[in-house]
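Page 37, continued from 36.
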């Protein structure tokens, strides 16, 4: 039996990953904050996997992260997907300290602590997937807090990958361009959903990377609409 932990699985890309990776020999540990939305994900995957466990925690809070780690426990973990993430989109002059710290907490500190605490329980051949963004490579006006967080996770991931090689744990970084999910609902402006990729496109890329032989590491996958960035 394999155990997979996916954060932010209540909607969007995380839900699509859960649906893609559900398999009869897999226990899915699905994390979210919205109990109703997470229950919908659990319902949609439960017939396809051995067991599904829902984990409700707010990753902006240190206690939320430590409680999640405690609930995951010390049994072997074959996959950790750091997917939960938030955006704050506004000129940097208007970003509040709380918004800055929440962005750091959810997008950087939670993945760091999950990797630090889960990696010792991950056997050779297991994988960590970090959902980064094209905003981990390029800055965009209005997206400074978000880009800060993704650039930070990028640097951490590259270094962690080098350390994890000796443990035969694969560190796979995914860099989606604009993806049609709820995350855009709170972003002001008229964003063309028809020029975005889908959450299923991102999940399919992850499934491809995970399906490689254990000694093969797909390090980075950048995905975007053929038509270019928005
Ligand atoms: N959509 C894009 O264009 C795009 C592009 C590149 C990268 N990404 C990245 O992809 C990942 C998933 O984003 P998405 O587009 O699927 O967004 P989404 O539909 O808004 O989903 C975000 C997920 O993160 C969880 N989350 C947010 N704040 C949280 C908190 N404080 N504590 C715990 N969980 C929290 C949400 O949980 P609840 O809903 O249960 O609160 C939800 O499950 C993020 O890391 C994002 O940065 C997205």
């Amino acid at each position: 039996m394999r155990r997979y932990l996916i954060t932010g699985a209540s909607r969007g890309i995380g839900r699509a990953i859960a649906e893609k990776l559900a398999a009869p020999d897999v226990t899915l540990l699905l994390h979210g904050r919205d109990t109703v939305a997470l229950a919908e994900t659990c319902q949609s995957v439960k017939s396809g996997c051995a067991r599904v466990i829902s984990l409700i925690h707010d990753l902006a809070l240190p206690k939320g992260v430590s409680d999640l780690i405690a609930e995951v426990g010390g049994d072997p973990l074959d996959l950790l997907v750091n997917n939960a993430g938030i955006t704050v989109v506004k000129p940097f002059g208007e970003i509040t300290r709380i918004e800055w710290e929440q962005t750091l907490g959810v997008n950087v500190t939670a993945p760091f602590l999950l990797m630090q605490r889960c990696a010792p329980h991950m056997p050779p051949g297991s994988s960590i997937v970090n959902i980064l963004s094209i905003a981990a490579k390029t800055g965009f006006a209005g997206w400074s807090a978000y880009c800060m967080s993704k650039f930070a996770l990028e640097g951490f991931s590259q270094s962690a990958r080098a350390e994890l090689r000796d443990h035969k744990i694969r560190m796979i970084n995914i860099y989606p361009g604009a993806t049609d999910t709820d995350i855009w609902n709170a972003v002001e402006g008229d964003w063309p959903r028809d020029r975005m990729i889908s959450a299923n496109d991102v999940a399919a890329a992850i499934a491809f990377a995970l399906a490689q032989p254990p000694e093969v590491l797909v390090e980075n996958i950048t995905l975007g609409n053929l038509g270019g960035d928005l």
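Residues 136 and 151 are 4 Å apart (CA to CA). Flag for discussion at group meeting. The mean pLDDT is 97.
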